[in-house]
């Protein structure tokens, strides 16, 4: 623990789209980090239900039914609402209004050039049927970040273009104002390696169904581990095997508490004599142990949905005041604070 005062605490804004339960990729990539950050930083987590609609407006129940599941996931991994503000995007009108103002200082060409957006458009096969809300996702994200005066934003390296675009918008607004109105932010990259999907083909994705959710049952964990990609050339137990690209060992690196033991397993596998069935059994036992307490806490929280709603309501009320203050500053830049 440091002796930071409240005025010195960095402001962190992070969050997740409400499009399904969170999974081990979220846990390794961001959730564990958020738990460690909440003691020494002013942290807000935004449940991004509006942004969830950018590619799910045809099926809005997917978003609405996911909101409380996401909150339960937060609590189950150790997010403490007494330390971290958890709020709901759709309950903060300032975010949508800021998005509108910012959209007037960003060109369509710039949005289409954003590498993250280009990649997502390609992966979802939108082509020219691209929803306008999805194209303007970086603007909405900039509104979220600036509305909380966030100075640190935990992201994966694939989201760095979003931070860059946010800071471009900040500089444009400040230039219009002729003075600092908004703060630029810095990315906070996780030290953890990105967790691959169970099939080894892509990153973990809720939409692709290649995840292990935080609330996965024992059977679901077992099925997922048994189907994991290993070394396709490791045909016999006595054959030497490759560790690189072997999803089982990637997960062992991420979750097994005994680093020395995993190192020994790798050497054994590489020289031959260690079967995929054995490594998968070791991994399954490890993941069962990691996820059992999270699953049990998650189930407990979901039995009291009123408590989850109260947490969201309280966090949203606090956040509404913060975001309205920034909104008034931005409106004044455009001369719209007439009364």
Could you describe the 3D structure shown?
Mean pLDDT is 93; it is low at 1-6. 53% of the residues lie in helices and 8% in strands. It has helices at residues 24-37, 49-52, 60-64, 67-77, 93-102, 108-113, 115-124, 132-135, 137-147, 160-177, 218-226, 247-255, 259-271, 276-302, 305-333; strands at residues 11-17, 42-48, 84-88, 152-155, 186-189. It starts with 10 loop residues before the first strand and ends in a 6-residue tail after the last helix. The chain is mainly alpha-helical. Helix 5 (93-102) crosses helix 9 (137-147), helix 5 runs parallel beside helix 15 and helix 11 packs antiparallel against helix 14. The strands form 2 sheets. Strands 1-2-3 form a 3-stranded parallel β-sheet.
Biggest β-sheet: strands ordered side by side in the sheet: 1-2-3
CATH architecture verdict of the largest domain: 3-Layer(aba) Sandwich
Figure out the total of helices: 15
Estimate the global geometry from the Cα principal axes.
globular
Average pLDDT taken over every residue = 93
What structural class should be given to the helix and strand makeup? mainly alpha
Q: Helix and strand string, N-terminal first?
A: EHEHHHEHHHHHEHEHHHHH
Q: What top-tier CATH class of the largest domain fits best?
A: Alpha Beta
User: Uncertain regions: pLDDT < 50 for 5+ in a row?
Assistant: 1-6
CATH fold descriptor of the largest domain: Rossmann fold
Largest sheet: 3 strands, parallel
Count of DSSP strands: 5
The fraction of residues in strands falls at: 5-15%
Radius of gyration: 22 Å
- Residues in helices, as a percent range: 40-55%
């Amino acid at each position: 623990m440091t002796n930071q005062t409240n005025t010195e605490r960095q402001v962190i804004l992070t969050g997740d789209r409400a499009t399904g339960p969170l999974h081990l990729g979220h846990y390794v990539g961001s959730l564990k980090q958020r738990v460690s950050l909440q003691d020494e930083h002013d942290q807000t987590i935004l449940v991004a239900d509006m942004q969830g609609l950018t590619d799910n407006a045809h099926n809005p129940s997917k978003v609405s039914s996911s909101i409380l599941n996401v909150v339960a996931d937060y609590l189950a991994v150790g997010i403490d609402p007494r330390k971290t503000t958890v709020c709901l995007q759709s309950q903060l009108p300032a975010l949508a209004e800021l998005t509108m103002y910012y959209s007037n200082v960003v060109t369509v060409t710039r949005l289409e050039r954003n590498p993250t957006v280009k990649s997502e458009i390609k992966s979802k096969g939108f082509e020219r049927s691209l929803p306008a809300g999805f194209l303007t996702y970086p603007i909405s994200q900039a509104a979220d970040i600036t509305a909380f005066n966030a100075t640190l934003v935990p992201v994966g390296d694939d989201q760095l273009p979003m931070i860059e675009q946010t800071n471009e918008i900040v500089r444009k607004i400040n230039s219009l104002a002729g003075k600092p109105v908004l703060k630029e932010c810095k990315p906070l990259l996780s030290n953890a390696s990105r967790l691959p999907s169970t099939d080894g083909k892509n990153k973990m994705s809720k939409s692709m169904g290649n995840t292990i959710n935080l609330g996965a049952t024992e059977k679901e964990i077992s099925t997922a581990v048994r189907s994991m990609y290993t070394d396709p050339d490791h045909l016999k137990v006595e054959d030497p095997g490759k560790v690189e690209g072997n999803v089982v060992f990637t997960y062992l690196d991420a979750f097994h508490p005994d680093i020395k033991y995993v190192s020994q397993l790798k050497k054994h596998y590489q020289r031959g004599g260690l079967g995929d069935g054995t490594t998968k059994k070791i991994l399954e036992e490890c993941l069962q142990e990691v996820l059992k307490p999270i699953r049990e806490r998650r189930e407990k929280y979901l039995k009291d949905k009123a408590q989850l709603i109260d947490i969201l309501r309280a966090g949203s009320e606090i956040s509404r005041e913060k975001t309205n203050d920034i909104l008034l500053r931005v409106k004044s830049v455009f001369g719209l604070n007439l009364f």
